[in-house]
Amino acid sequence: MHYFICAGEPSGDLHAAALFKEIKTFDSEAMFTFLGGDLMTSAAGCNPVIHYSRMAFMGFSEVLRNLRTIGDNIKLAKSALAESGADCFIAVDYPGFNLKLAKYAYSIGVPVYWYISPKVWAWKEYRVKSLRKYVRKMLCILPFEVEFYRKHRMEAVYVGNPSLEEIDARLAKAPSKEEFCIANGLRPDSPVLALVPGSRRGEIKNNLPVMAQVARKHPELQPVIAGAPGRGAADYAIAPGIPVLYGCTFDLMAIADEALVTSGTATLECALAGTPQVVCYRANASRLSYNIMKMILKIPFVSLPNLIAGEKVIPEMLVHQCTVEGVDEELNAIMPGAPGRTMMLEGYAGIRAKLGEHGAARRAAEVITTDLKRI
């Protein structure tokens, strides 16, 4: 079979590369045409039609500035799909671009599979109508997504969460707390408080000052900032005196005793690493923004651990609730010896159980290859 796959960012490149390898175990004659990155190139043994570095545009203004490039990419992708003679199109996350490509694949009779669902259950639910029309099977990596899609009369399968396998592999290689502290000039005998304020400049500006002030209330803790790629000293100058470590965010969270984390993938990584945390997402801190966010979002929580658990496992201090006093109160509730810490760690165990076993890419590959034989 010939598989046409599109992943438009680094995380998709990682997940798609694993999918390539597993498809080969079920289809020894598999051929690939793809849009993606270096990991996919290595796994497929050929170059991408478009490298994701030419596709990864974030935010309204960046998209607006690159409309011509985005349009050219879509035209090239459609042409490549038609000329490849592919037996299927596999979209890997990246909804804006992949939905256009899925529509085109459907129009020329190429069956569409989607691995790693768009977050339409959180916002832009109107996209489900198009997904239902164009996508043959949705391969979900979050357990609650299956019920969501089935409610919308779509065929959905939970294949497991690839992050679980990836994080466990990283944990197996992670340094001990003593090793990490010695290598980074920290005190091994002092508790570490990881401050993970996000990767975008606006996130850092809004969240880090609150995190830093909370840290100063705890002289017994050793605060450390997780520096994001592409950010420099000027971005973290708003938290003077707190060391910034780059390129080791996961290891920092894994050895930390507690963490303050801006909502995102890092919250799930922190939970699977077993580190108690408080989610901090301040934005512009206005009650109006909070109410608007609540109206737009179709979900009861914003953090992945809580969404997976289906209940509050970690506190979410959002917008105007994200104050020094509020965050500090929640941090105190998860310090060693506090009941909240034990409850959170028990919640983490439940999240692991819900995510299931390793092998998401293998199960996804099996679903796709098996289904293709039936067409």
Structure description:
By secondary structure, the protein is α/β, with parallel strands linked by helices. It has 17 helices and 13 strands. The strands form two sheets. It has a seven-stranded parallel β-sheet with strand order 3-2-1-4-5-6-7, sandwiched between helices. A six-stranded parallel β-sheet has the order 10-9-8-11-12-13, sandwiched between helices. Strand 6 (137-140), helix 7 and strand 7 (156-158) form a beta-alpha-beta unit. Helix 1 (10-26) runs parallel beside helix 2 (38-44), helix 1 crosses helix 17 (360-374) and helix 10 crosses helix 15 (324-332). The mean pLDDT is 91.
Poorly predicted spans? none
Query: Structural class given helices, strands, pairing?
Result: alpha/beta
Topology order in helix (H) and strand (E) letters: EHEHEHHEHEHEHEHHEHEEHEHEHHEHHH
What does the overall shape look like?
elongated
Mean pLDDT level? 91
Determine the N-to-C terminus distance: 12 Å
* Total beta-strand segments: 13
Number of helices: 17
Strand % is 5-15%
Which features does this protein show?
375 residues, alpha/beta, seven-stranded parallel β-sheet, six-stranded parallel β-sheet, 17 helices, 13 strands
Give a nutshell description of this structure.
The chain is of the alpha/beta class and 375 residues long. The strands form two sheets. The protein has a seven-stranded parallel sheet, sandwiched between helices.
